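A favour, since you know our structure tokens better than I do. It will help me judge whether the discrete encoding reads sensibly. The space below this message is yours for that.
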Amino acid sequence: MVRRRLIFTLGLLTAFAALFSGFILWRIGVPLQIDVNEAWNGWQVDRLLSGQPLYPEANALIINNYPPLSFYIIGLVRPLFENAIVAGRWISLASVILIALTIYLSARHLEAGKWAASMGAFWFIATMTRFFGEYAGMNDPNLLALAVMAAGFVVFLRSTSRSTLYIAFTLMMLAGIIKHNIVAMPFSALLLLWLANRGRAIEIALYCAVIIGLLSLALFEYYGLAFFQQLLMAREVSFFRPLQRIGRLQFILPVLIFWFIWLKSAPPSKSKRVTSVLVMASFAVNELALTGAGVANNAQFELVFATGLCLSVIVGDLQGRFASIGRIRFDVGLALLWVMAARFLLWPALDPYLLVVSSSYRADITEKAAIMQSEIERVRAISGPVNCTIRSVCYLAGKEFVFDDFAMNQRIKTRHASEASIRAEAERLGIQFVAIREEARWRSP
């Protein structure tokens, strides 16, 4: 019975993952702007390839507060694609698949069965492409960094020697040069190592400290002080923001509730220890990161990874177990499967379904793409520097990156600059601010 349940649910999750990721795959070729970061990342790649400074001076009207490696990676594959935005979209979607594979490998090491481990992997793909479609298949390095970090975490879990531990933590530090906000996994790995072997944990911590110090010196030597000035950009902080965004936990909360139920009755085990440390660390990092202005759902991705791993290690164990709420007695494992499936079905975003069944939906996207192209041509005809309300239009029109609205807004709010001084500098540079039709921005119906 347990095996039949798992096979049926795995088939359902596979169908969800195929449908939702198929939609993301189709959207890669749609030129509409998914997120403001798409053009921002594309500009950084183009600046690198054209020989311009990757990290501008502190008083510039543009910023680059990301580590450099992702720009080199996209720059390397850029000639294979239409532009850097499309290249980044492909890398992002491929990263989702790679992260799912690391969940499978991690779960198998924690003695989850093949069906259960596969379920966590396909749940991750379906969750990312269904609920976090603004990042999955979007030109941003966060998922690429998470894929490399998760690969390091797998190597750590499966490590049987001192050398593989060094490989694991080296991969995790490499991920930090792609995107520097993924810290729950290396922290969890170090804490788990401390619980198992304190001497080795101290050794690895010292190794990481030395490597990070050497990397910092190398980055300073190559990019100068501007690298650190940009990385530490002025940002408004609010401790109420995590509470305002608490609702975004709804996508993983159903699985975590069943994981809590499993924790109460599960005997001590490596899977219990690993998932507990990883969930707590990921939750803490998510909440802390959300205090910064501009931090979006990407802060939650390590927690989504942890939840997928939790699902893998509990789903088989919970089948056939019964619990009671008042007078109602229910099969916990069956409830988990139904709640998980219902969560995907009840989310109101209908794009993946409409793409399949609605010709008017497809015609509407084609019409918006035509409007996007006309806006690109309009901006291309404007001489001089231009800042568009929808950045991708300026990027695809071949305009250079000349003004960062978010960064300038943060400088004003944190009192690092005045609105008048920023306006005066923009006027001195001759920047023209152009409003773009909203049809050029991707929006779900």
